[in-house]
């Protein structure tokens, strides 16, 4: 039985990757930052942190593959650049070095569409695009994902490591645990009536279950070696997401807002409301990320976005 290491095992995406691997008959090991969040049998747990070298050789030992999913999020806008960039970039390099020493066949690293965003805020972006690191609108989170992926590709090229990167759009879908739900917080906030007005934000959405499947496909398919793959489905404005919730959830969506808010007011509020700061660059941005390459090469099949939104909402604690 082949063993796979999934980093950050308590996270939203990692949890679904682990479930998918177990369903396919793999032995799974995962990392946690402390001893307070152990994985459940048959998943083996190793303590390792992206900010330290300790534990990584033990984590990758006897593993055929590594899914490096762990990365700091900082979605509330309060984390500074140092708190995000160093763990993301240096942590990725720690994982890759340990994988090289252990002779791992391939590392699949979770990047982000934040690393493949063109300066033009409209149109369609694919894997050939690289975000400009000099873009003044880059938040610390987006910069951390870009620099981490760049560093990973440089390391892989210099050390002969087989690497594939997966670049998710906004990840929604059912949560397995209320902790570390990441971007699902967008849905949770809408259901509680926050924000009370709807900013003109839009997202290309990917279902976490489809994203986990894409990671596993990228892990073993020979055609995936040395490639970037965007994991994405359909684009939706926040107002359209809210409308889907109201249309299908009845009383459970009674607090979901209905009225828009002017762009100027959003920018003003972002100065004093940290969660808005990471999203302000998205204001009015009509940019779609395409997963055509993943669909063509790996058979990736994103499900309808309404299913993702509703399954996400129904999985959240009431």
Low-confidence stretches: none
Distance between the termini: 40 Å
Strand content: 15-25%
Total beta-strand segments: 12
| Share of helical residues | 25-40%
Tell me the radius of gyration. 19 Å
Order of helices and strands: EHEEHEHEEHEEHEHEEHHHEHH
Instruction: Enter the CATH topology name.
Output: Rossmann fold
Q: If classified by CATH, what would the architecture be?
A: 3-Layer(aba) Sandwich
Tell me, rounded to a whole number, the average pLDDT.
92
Provide the number of structural domains.
1
CATH superfamily descriptor:
NAD(P)-binding Rossmann-like Domain
What is the overall silhouette? globular
Summary?
The chain has 318 residues and is an alpha/beta fold. It has helices spanning 12-23, 56-60, 81-102, 140-159, 185-191, 208-220, 238-249, 263-270, 274-277, 292-298, 305-315, and strands spanning 3-6, 27-32, 44-47, 65-68, 106-110, 122-125, 163-168, 170-172, 202-207, 228-231, 235-237, 286-289. The chain starts with a strand and ends with a helix.
Walk me through the structure.
This protein has a single domain (3-315), classed as Rossmann fold (3-Layer(aba) Sandwich), CATH 3.40.50.720. It has 318 residues and is α/β, with parallel strands linked by helices. The protein has helices spanning 12-23, 56-60, 81-102, 140-159, 185-191, 208-220, 238-249, 263-270, 274-277, 292-298, 305-315, and strands at residues 3-6, 27-32, 44-47, 65-68, 106-110, 122-125, 163-168, 170-172, 202-207, 228-231, 235-237, 286-289. It is globular. β1, α1 (12-23) and β2 form a beta-alpha-beta unit.
